[in-house]
Amino acid sequence: MGAQLRVYKQKIASAQTTKKITKAMELIAASRIQKAMARVRASSPFATAVTRAVSAVATYSDVDHPLTVERENIRRSAVVIFTSDRGLAGAFNSQILREGLELAELLRQQGKEPVFYLVGRKAVGYFQFRRMAAVAEWTGDTDTPHFHTAEEIAASLLDAYTRGGEDGGVDEIHLVYNRFVSMMTQSPEQVRLLPLEVVEADDSASSQVYPLYEFEPDPEVVLDALLPVYIQSRVFNALLQSSAAKHAATQKAMKSASDNADKLITDYTRLRNNARQAEITQQIAEIVGGADALGSGK
């Protein structure tokens, strides 16, 4: 009985230590998510303004710009998967990896070759473990994304898209990331970034009227200047959305872990009390039995 009591005490102490850690991580995630949400809100107006400007140029001009015209034969498609550098976030990484692989399978069925661009150590580790190839990787900047990371990703994607599928590049670009919906919900999102018309066809569901522009010197030069900024803003917004969603997922996962630790502590405390009561009962029974034996021996 004594050994059993020691085991229960050790398990209770272990659960209490785990609860302290998960509670601290929950509080840290709660503080970080407010900053991440503020950055998402701050970046949205600029991304919206750039998107409207590019849409207006593409809609009200007759220029066949290579970035705004869908290619006749799409051979290779870039799939950019946004995960986190750290775990302990529930199904945050697994659901976005599953979403990215399902998109890749759909592209294969359409006769296109998917090529992967990975953001976050979890995606890199997943692909390395399964010996799957990736064109480019970016790690170490997912908790608090910086704009230079978005610039690097956008430059790599734009270079691949400019070269085209025939020269080892890509003919279209898809972004796959977790979108922050609420503290309890993080929704996997698929966005076709280029060619431009497909994305803007989806965004035009709100029937908004784009402003009219006068182009100086001409629409092609304007598109050359605007499209890299457009891609950077969309990639940066995806990074910020993924960061906010990750912190929300971490907070939810750590709260669940703390609740489970509380339940374990309650269960082990009950078992410890039962074992202690059984030990006391056994000791009393042994004393009474010894007293009876002494009394009958007189």
Automatic annotation (TrEMBL):
Q: Which InterPro entries does this UniProt record tie to the protein? A: ATP_synth_F1_ATPase_gsu, ATP_synth_F1_gsu
Which key words are in the record? Answer: ATP synthesis, Cell membrane, CF(1), Coiled coil, Hydrogen ion transport, Ion transport, Membrane, Transport
- Signal peptide residues are none
Q: Which Gene3D superfamilies match?
A: 3.40.1380.10, ATP synthase, gamma subunit, helix hairpin domain
Is Ion transport set as a keyword in this record? yes
GO BP terms: namely: proton motive force-driven plasma membrane ATP synthesis
GO CC, any one term: proton-transporting ATP synthase complex
Q: Which GO terms describe its molecular function?
A: ATP binding; proton-transporting ATP synthase activity, rotational mechanism
- Has the keyword Electron transport been applied to this entry? no
Give the matching Pfam families: ATP-synt (PF00231)
Q: Which residues form a coiled coil?
A: 254-281
- Membrane protein topology class: Peripheral membrane protein
Q: Where in the cell is it found?
A: Cell membrane; Membrane
User: In which family does this protein belong, per the annotation?
Assistant: Belongs to the ATPase gamma chain family.
| NCBIfam families from the UniProt entry | ATPsyn_F1gamma, PRK05621.1-2
Function of the protein: Produces ATP from ADP in the presence of a proton gradient across the membrane. The gamma chain is believed to be important in regulating ATPase activity and the flow of protons through the CF(0) complex.
Give the protein name, as stated in the record: ATP synthase gamma chain
